[in-house]
Amino acid sequence: MDLFIKTIPSGSILQTAAARRALGGLLAFALLFSGIPAAHAEEPVFPLGDCSDEVLRVETRLSDLGYSTLVINGRWEQADADALSAFAAANGVTTVSVEQALFSDEAIPAAGSTGSVFASGTGGFALTYGSLMPWDEVKARLQPEVSYNITSCYSSITLHMVCVSLGAHAKFRPELEWDNATLRGFFSSASSSEKQPIVVSVDGILIAASIQQAAPGADTDGLPEYSVYFHDSLTGIHGIPDAEHESVIQIAASQP
Q1: In principle, which of 19, 69, 132, 209 could form an S-S bond with 253, CB 3.0–4.6 Å?
Q2: pLDDT at 166
Q3: In CATH, what class is 135-252?
Q4: For residue 52, how many C-alpha atoms fall within 13 Å in the half-sphere facing its CB?
């Protein structure tokens, strides 16, 4: 043993120990910084229970892309977080960059999803079509508190709805309880994200549009308000377009 110790210069031992300490420090430094992206990737975009306009904006976009069929209410729940995770996985992003990807034109929709829109009507195809008129032009023609004929593209059933307001898109309310009951029959479920192709008769012109199911309990004077989108209409959430509404309008205009 003594002979072995004498064969190793003391300087070499010190150098070896110093090298090991330096290597250990470098490894610790590398591990520290390599863990940062992973830590950020696991951070939630919104805490569960958070309620805000931004939550509503993300929920709307997830619904448009077919990742969520939930009621859009502006409250972040576990099902919303699961839908966002599914989007992130399908688009190859983490929660650090997911919002930018979510609102990108290159956002990949859910596989095989057509959202909540009927793929075809009762007879297997749409029966009624309208003209594709830009929202600015339609907006100039519509008048609040005036009743208009609304016709389902799939069933050709016509009912009466009163124009309530004109903003980034239109709001309509059924004129009578009978109209509301008939309108409810246009939809396959109670989901407030479901949309259907319709035509609206304005100045004798049948105009292609998309109507969205009213949220449960969202009643005004006993009858709910429905969102009606025309070509190039925008959402009320930071003025972003709604891809699903636009695709339904194309159906109503017989544009594949």
Answers
A1: 132
A2: 95
A3: mainly beta
A4: 10
Name the helix (H) or strand (E) containing 32.
helix 10-41
Domain borders along the chain are 2-41, 53-102, 135-252
In angstroms, the first-to-last Cα distance of the chain is 88
Contact 45, 84 (CB under 8 A): yes
Q: Which segments of the chain have a pLDDT < 50?
A: 1-8, 10, 12-14, 26-42, 113-124
Task: For residues 94 and 233, give the distance between their C-alpha atoms in angstroms, rounded to a whole number.
Answer: 31
**What's the confidence (pLDDT) of residue 110?**
81
Predicted pLDDT at 160: 94
- What are the residue ranges of helices labelled H in 177-239? 177-184
Partners of residue 224 on adjacent β-strands: 219
The owner of tokens 């610790």 is: 28
Strand pairing class (219-220; 170-174): unpaired
With H, G, I as helix, E, B as strand and everything else as coil, classify residue 31.
helix
* Mean pLDDT, the chain, whole residue set: 76
**If DSSP codes are grouped into helix, strand and coil, which group holds residue 83?**
helix
Q: Using an 8 Å Cβ cutoff, are 136 and 142 in contact?
A: no
The one-letter amino acid code at 49 reads G
Structure tokens at 236: 């009320």
Model pLDDT, residue 239: 78
Distance CA 256, CA 51 (A): 37
> Is-contact 51 181, C-beta < 8 A?
no
Task: Give me the pLDDT at residue 134, please.
Answer: 95
